[in-house]
Prior knowledge:
This protein is 30% helix and 29% strand. The chain is of the alpha/beta class. It has one domain (4-173): NAD(P)-binding Rossmann-like Domain (Rossmann fold). A 7-stranded parallel sheet has the order 3-2-1-4-5-6-9, sandwiched between helices. A two-stranded antiparallel ribbon has the order 7-8.
Amino acid sequence: MARHILVVGGTGMLSELVKALAGDGGRLSLLSRRASVVAGADGFDCDYYDEAAFTGALEAAVARSGPVDLAVTWFHTLKIPASRLLAERVQGRLFQVLGSAAVDPAHPGRLQAAARVADGLPHCAVRQVVLGFKVEARGSRWLTNSEISQGVLEAVRADRTSSTIGQTEPWSARP
């Protein structure tokens, strides 16, 4: 069991994940724009696009709860300093929740590029969870928040290095 779990972006689609992790024991920190309103976690309000605010919130979370043993992140982009700043603080597993664009066949290599956030950091083990879609009788749809939270939770608990929630093929079936 992780002693300090940190979730970035857990007030929206990952809110059910945060509730489940809060029941797992250990310290739970949440970094997001509305983190302080979530019960069961030490909430640190920040916008990960604001490097100074994110760094301050991350440092406060580590000061309060110790090294990050498990991190679950939902960054809309990894082209910001926040993803590397967090990876530098993880002393265990870092689960990246990634949109389906990470496996877009027109842009191969995106998953590998995302994993590079931990290059040179031997204490940070990257895991990746790709969000796909569902094909149903009436057509395809994006995943619900509940499906996303449940799928990420399963990946975390099973410690899967790579997971896909829903499907990403055929690519042409995306909603």
